[in-house]
């Protein structure tokens, strides 16, 4: 695991453009959603409900980057092995498949800390929003969202095993589906009625709802957190089963030759 | 023509594959292949393009799952024992590149760690010296020629002193000088460490120099198995090159006949 993590650290160190994911894009996101919030506040007046909106948007984008960075680090880490045609060489070592993913996720933690740290700092510096004001209850929310990001990455890895690098657009594309449905900036009720059931099923919806409850200064929303935690565990189990299924197909159909 | 299970060294075989079958959508790639490699033995797996060599190798390495048959490597049955088995195997292929953005030393250290070496840097340096390229340790993968990359791949696959070294087309892109260095290094390794070698190649002269036994595949089946001189004699030919050409022309003729069928 450490060997895999170190290999990916070298890749990041020697590919400055990859730092965009953990530096530039997080700042762009913060400016976009922070400025939207400031604009709405200016339109609604100082006592309007829009005052809370700016905090929802900024806490949403900070927490969203937990999911995003966790997912993208594992997905692109796996894709790095396919781009460099290193998959076959890895598969004929004692390294187990789960150890490979765990090693990539381990290094992904460092990227996650960088990316989320940049968003949190930008939110504080540009909009005076301090995410730590949410208190200690922020930690379970972050943990759930991080594991949720890994669960999404497992599905992306499975699809790449099955469909090859043609499926890599999903690594980024899938986040554009999860973002609006996952309750990042608004509660389920804000969505069109026909997609609400899907949103309710996503564990991120409940984790972000818990985040908003903390913004409102309410007690720790254990109910939402429990729902999010259970949903995330189910998603991880489903993701692992999906990867195992795709890996069997990968071996049975000899797809490794795509990368050699 | 293939060797039959149980008649050879039995449990001590470093590789025992029995009745391997693999069918892809385009047809049967491997059709009942038996393959045994004994400790320290140098075996070449030969055959024309499409004969099933690489598919056979990949099944023996646990990367491709056979539709039928069994594989045992260093006493570990695949696929369950894949991880334990691979600790005893080294693999390199002439067509595999080095990962970008890694120095040679970093690349070798990573694989050394994956193979559980306590001191991968020392082992890496020893491997680089064996093949006469210790000066490449600090070079970036992207700075190397294709021949140097192949050599580094071979160093990577040998630094943990495997019981079985599997090389797929190892000298395909090498000039005669580097190819000689590879052969010399491999011979030294097999001599010193008792490493068994399973190699595929289209260079029959090289095979005759490296291998003490050849296994010829044609249309996914073993059609000859024995020492190079015996195999050539069995086909009434002077050398392996002629056997190869004979089998390739047979294959073309059979494909042509099948194409004429209504």
What attributes does this structure have?
heterodimer; A: 260 residues; mainly alpha; globular; B: 262 residues; alpha/beta; Rossmann fold; 6-stranded mixed sheet; 4-stranded antiparallel sheet; 9 helices
Describe the structure.
The complex is a heterodimer of chains A (260) and B (262). Chain A is mostly helical and 260 residues long. Chain A has one domain. Chain A has helices at 2-13, 24-44, 50-83, 87-91, 97-127, 138-163, 169-181, 196-201, 203-215, 222-252. In chain A, helix 1 (2-13) packs across helix 5. Chain A is globular and about 65 Å long. The relative contact order of chain A is 0.13. The mean pLDDT of chain A is 89. Chain B is of the alpha/beta class. Chain B has a single domain (10-260), classed as P-loop containing nucleotide triphosphate hydrolases (Rossmann fold), CATH 3.40.50. Helix content of chain B is 39%, strand content 23%. Chain B contains 9 helices and 10 strands. Chain B has helices at 53-60, 82-86, 104-114, 120-130, 146-158, 176-193, 204-210, 228-234, 240-260; strands at 15-24, 27-37, 42-46, 68-73, 76-77, 89-93, 164-168, 196-200, 213-218, 221-226. Chain B has a 6-stranded mixed β-sheet, with helices on both faces. In chain B, strand 1 and strand 2 (27-37) form a beta hairpin. Chain B is globular. At the A-B interface, helix 1, helix 4 and helix 10 of A face helix 1, helix 2, strand 6 and helix 3 of B.
Task: Explain briefly what this protein structure is.
The complex is a heterodimer of chains A (260) and B (262). Chain A is built from 10 helices and no strands.
Strand content of chain A: under 5%
The span between the termini of chain B is: 32 Å
Provide the CATH top-level class of chain B.
Alpha Beta
In the residues of chain A, how many domains can be counted? Answer: 1
Average pLDDT reading of chain A: 89
- Major sheet of chain B: 6 strands, mixed
- Please state the oligomeric state of the protein chains shown: heterodimer
Terminal CA distance of chain A? 23 Å
**How much of the polypeptide of chain B forms β-strand, as a percent range?**
15-25%
Provide the CATH topology of chain B: Rossmann fold
Unreliable spans of chain B are 1-10
What's the Cα radius of gyration of chain B? 19 Å
State mean pLDDT of chain B (0 to 100 scale). 85
User: What is the global morphology of chain A?
Assistant: globular
Return the structural class of chain A.
mainly alpha
Count of DSSP-assigned helices of chain B: 9
Order of strands side by side in the largest beta sheet of chain B? 6-7-8-3-9-10
């Amino acid at each position: 695991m450490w060997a895999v993590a170190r290999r990916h650290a070298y890749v990041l160190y020697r590919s400055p453009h990859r730092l965009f994911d953990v530096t530039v894009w997080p700042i762009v996101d913060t400016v976009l959603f922070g400025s939207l919030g400031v604009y709405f506040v200016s339109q609604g007046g100082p006592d309007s409900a829009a005052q809370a909106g700016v905090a929802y948007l900024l806490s949403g984008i900070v927490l969203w980057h937990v999911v995003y960075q966790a997912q993208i680090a594992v997905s692109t880490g796996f894709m790095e092995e396919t781009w460099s045609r290193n998959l076959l060489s890895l598969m004929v070592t004692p390294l187990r498949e789960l150890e490979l993913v765990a090693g990539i996720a381990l290094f992904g933690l460092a990227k996650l800390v960088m990316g989320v740290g940049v968003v949190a700092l930008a939110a504080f510096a540009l909009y005076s929003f301090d995410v730590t004001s949410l208190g200690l209850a922020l930690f379970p929310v972050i943990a759930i969202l991080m594991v949720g990001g890994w669960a999404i990455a497992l599905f992306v890895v499975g699809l790449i095993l099955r469909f090859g690098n043609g499926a890599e657009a999903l690594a980024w594309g899938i986040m554009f589906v999860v973002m609006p449905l996952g309750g990042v900036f608004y509660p389920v009720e804000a969505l069109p009625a026909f997609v609400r059931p899907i949103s309710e099923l996503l564990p991120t919806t409940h984790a972000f709802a818990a985040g908003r409850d903390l913004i409102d200064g309410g007690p720790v929303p254990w109910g939402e957190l429990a729902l999010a935690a259970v949903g995330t565990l189910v998603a991880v189990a489903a993701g692992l089963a999906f990867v195992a299924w795709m890996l069997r197909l990968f071996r049975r159909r000899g797809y490794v030759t795509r990368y050699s | 023509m293939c060797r039959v299970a149980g008649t050879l060294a039995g449990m001590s075989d470093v590789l025992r594959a029995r009745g391997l079958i693999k069918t892809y959508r385009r047809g049967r790639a491997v059709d009942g292949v038996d393959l045994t490699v004994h400790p320290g033995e140098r075996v070449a797996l030969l055959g024309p393009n499409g004969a099933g060599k690489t598919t056979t190798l990949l099944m023996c390495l646990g990367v491709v799952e056979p539709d039928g048959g069994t594989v045992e490597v260093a006493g570990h049955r695949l696929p369950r024992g894949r991880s334990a088995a691979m600790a005893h195997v080294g693999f390199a292929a002439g067509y595999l590149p080095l990962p970008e953005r890694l120095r040679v030393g970093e690349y070798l250290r990573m694989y050394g760690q994956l193979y559980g070496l306590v001191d991968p840097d020392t082992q890496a340096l020893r491997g680089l010296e064996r093949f006469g390229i210790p000066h490449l340790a600090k070079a970036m993968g992207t700075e190397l020629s294709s021949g140097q990359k192949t050599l580094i791949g071979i160093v990577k696959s040998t630094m943990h002193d495997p019981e079985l070294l599997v090389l797929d087309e190892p000298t395909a892109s090498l000039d005669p000088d580097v190819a000689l260095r590879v052969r010399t290094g491999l011979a030294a390794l097999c001599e010193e460490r008792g490493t068994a070698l399973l190699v595929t190649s289209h260079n029959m002269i090289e095979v005759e120099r490296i291998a003490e036994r050849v296994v010829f595949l044609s249309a996914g089946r073993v059609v000859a198995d024995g020492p190079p001189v015996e195999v050539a004699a069995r086909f009434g030919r002077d050398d392996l090159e002629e056997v190869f050409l004979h089998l390739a022309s047979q294959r073309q003729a059979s494909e042509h006949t099948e194409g004429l069928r209504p």
